[in-house]
Specification:
With 266 residues, the chain is of the alpha+beta class. 48% of the residues lie in helices and 12% in strands. A four-stranded antiparallel beta sheet has the order 1-2-3-4, with no helix packed on it. The chain has a two-stranded antiparallel sheet with strand order 5-6. β2 and β3 form a beta hairpin. α3 packs antiparallel against α10, α9 crosses α10 and α11 crosses α13. The radius of gyration is 19 Å and the shape is globular. The model has no long low-confidence stretch (mean pLDDT 94). It binds a DNA duplex (13 and 12 nucleotides) through α4, α10 and α12.
Length: 266
DNA sequence: GTACAGGCAGTAT
DNA sequence: ATACTGCCTGTA
């Protein structure tokens, strides 16, 4: 969801556009509109990186990866955008996901002009809740359209309150997220880690599954090829226990590492 | 053309 | 509980 114009990068985060410029070799971040709370700080500048890195370095392989990719960070995405994005991502590939999200913004988001360039915000819950399946399908989300609409309705009518999930623990947040259409364990973990500040959430997708199989045989013995929901929970609880309270940060490094191993460039 | 990548939900055992 | 199946799009 990032685009470059005239040596600057622009990204969409919910109702906001984020601009990154390089000025005298330093990054300059500008939010449109301005930030009002740390909850919208996309780059997590409130994180105590020294403490987090020191904590996850206790695990030897992750300690190596920290040295290999010292600039890698978690981001704090807009919760609703994050939720819909990961529903779109189920059983899909990064180029396809990207195409869907761009079309959702263009079709149902609001147009804004910044530096003479046109951008579209991510559609709010009302916009997606009131959209038609046909409109959603025109954004190439395929069979995920009904789940996107149903989940947007749940957010819009208040039957789930994403903001309030920031203030409850991992288990409780997960339980609520799993009630949503199109949300299973993996999507719930992604939403919690990437938007709800649950740094102990550890999403297990096919890539992390491969990383666990390749490097953590002792930790997850007899790892099945495909994880049923029950097996996901078993694997999840053992890796979360092993990697500790910043397991999600460790996950980010493992994910990056295993994709590099496979020669993926997104 | 055709294979492949990629989680969730519904149904049957 | 577990196994199987269908679903849709973009890229190689």
């Amino acid at each position: 969801m990032w685009e470059r114009y005239d040596r600057r990068w622009y990204g969409v985060n919910g109702e906001r556009i984020i601009r990154i410029s390089v000025v005298n070799g330093k990054y300059e971040i500008t939010y449109f509109p301005d930030l009002s709370s740390y909850e919208d700080d996309y780059f997590r500048s409130d994180d105590n990186i020294a403490e987090i890195f020191s904590e996850i370095s206790r695990e030897p392989f992750v300690a190596e990866l920290l040295k290999a990719y010292p600039g890698l960070r978690l981001l704090r995405q807009h919760p609703f955008q994050c939720l819909i994005s990961f529903i779109c991502a189920t059983n899909s590939t990064i180029p396809a996901i990207r195409a869907s999200l761009i079309r959702l913004c263009r079709t149902l988001g609001k147009e804004v002009m910044i530096d003479g360039n046109k951008f579209y915000t991510f559609p709010d819950p009302a916009a997606l809740a009131n959209s038609t399946i046909k409109q959603l399908r025109s954004c190439s989300v395929g069979y995920r359209a009904p789940a996107i609409k149903e989940t947007s309705c749940s957010v819009f009518d208040g039957s789930i309150d994403l903001q309030s999930l920031r203030r409850v623990g991992y288990e409780q947040a997960r339980e609520r997220l799993l009630t949503l259409s199109g949300v299973g364990h993996k999507v719930a973990d992604c939403v919690m880690l990437f938007s709800l500040d649950k740094l102990d959430a550890f999403p297990v997708d096919v890539w992390i599954h491969r990383a666990l199989a390749a490097n953590y045989r002792a930790l997850v013995r007899n790892l099945p090829n495909k994880l049923s929901p029950r097996q996901y929970e078993i694997v999840s609880s053992s890796v979360r226990n092993y990697f500790g309270r910043y397991a999600g940060y460790a996950q980010q490094f493992l994910y990056y590492y295993i994709r590099n191993q496979a020669g993926r460039t997104w």
